[in-house]
Amino acid sequence: MTRKLTPEDAVERYLDERKPEVSESTLYNYTYLLERFADWCNTQGIDYINEIDGFTIHDFKLFRRDTDDISNLTLHKNMCTLRTFIRHMESWDVVDDGLADNMILPEIDSETRDRKISAEQAHEMLEYLDKYEYGTKRHALFAILWDTGMRLGSVRSLDLGDYHSGEKYIELHHRPESDTPLKNAEGGEREVNLHAWVCEVIDDHIKMNRHNVTDDYGRKPLFTTEHGRPARSGLRMHITALSRPCHYTGECPHDREQMECEAWTDREYAARCPSSISPHDVRRSSITEWLKRGHRKEIVSDRCDVSPKVLDKHYDVRTKTEKRELRRDAFGMD
């Protein structure tokens, strides 16, 4: 290994190489994680990427898990991204060969990968929001996520002008130059119909709780903070906190003492509740519910911007019994 690279230089070169190969949203995720890794290396006194070894990677994994308080599934994805980066470093002869293959990734079970909520749970959350948090950002956010099955990044990308209250739909645009790319770029651009009750919530959110602000690019976001467009992490936290059963039912299914449970006492630790879900879990659950109602996969695929093949593999979590009963109904069998 003859050439030395600082962690920042290594990350910058890697991202430049991958930029033409991946979507804007994927590049965004790579950038966030790898810049976090480079910053962490600096705090550990690692001047050159050549100095990292298995202990370095292990310590960073623990840092992400414990200090950044991320879920095991997110940690698994992070370490997969880091492993791909390390493999590139190996190909450039700046780290030891075999370092990537020797990485130990966090294990994830099927329950974590397939976490979802039922329509009954979603309706419980909506009833709670209607009664106690009507018209809030969280109310409008969950209503859109559940009704449309959108990705969180897509919802964050919405401008005030993308919402059409009278016609009851929203339009999605790929705007990477102003920090709101869509995962499938121009292929993800579309118009999505909304139910009337969702529009009522959005209308009242705009009247009561939307801040009259623009983002860093002069655009008017649909969802706002006092300073502009919210970060993904802030929107994600709203869903994680809402989905704790103690929040919307007042009861804990895990027999925890409320005031001794950090998932209850500190909203930033809401993800530590075993029953909490992420926005992506809402997306999976919404798609499953549309399918359970008998809607054709092609229509659901278009509405939710997911190919039928990916839908089958990752989003259709209906049981065999549910699928059989739908076929019975479709064929008119008594």
Textual characterization of the structure:
The mean pLDDT is 87. The protein contains 16 helices and three strands. α7 runs antiparallel to α9 and α7 (137-148) packs across α13 (279-292). A three-stranded antiparallel beta sheet has the order 1-2-3, with no helix packed on it. It has helices at 7-18, 24-43, 54-66, 72-91, 110-113, 119-132, 137-148, 152-156, 196-208, 232-242, 245-248, 262-265, 279-292, 297-304, 308-315, 320-330, and strands spanning 163-164, 169-172, 190-193. It holds the Pfam family Phage_int_SAM_5. It comes from Halorussus limi. GO terms for molecular function: DNA binding.
List the uncertain runs.
none
Estimated helix fraction: 40-55%
**Distance between the ends:** 72 Å
Strand percent estimate: under 5%
Shape: globular
Oligomer status = single chain
SS-derived structural category: mainly alpha
> Would you identify the CATH H-level superfamily of the largest domain?
Intergrase catalytic core
Which strand order do you get reading across the main beta sheet? 1-2-3
Protein name: Site-specific integrase
GO molecular function, one term: DNA binding
InterPro entries: CB, DNA_brk_join_enz, Integrase-like_cat_sf, Integrase_recombinase_N, SAM-like_dom, Tyrosine_recombinase_XerCD
GO biological process, one term: DNA integration
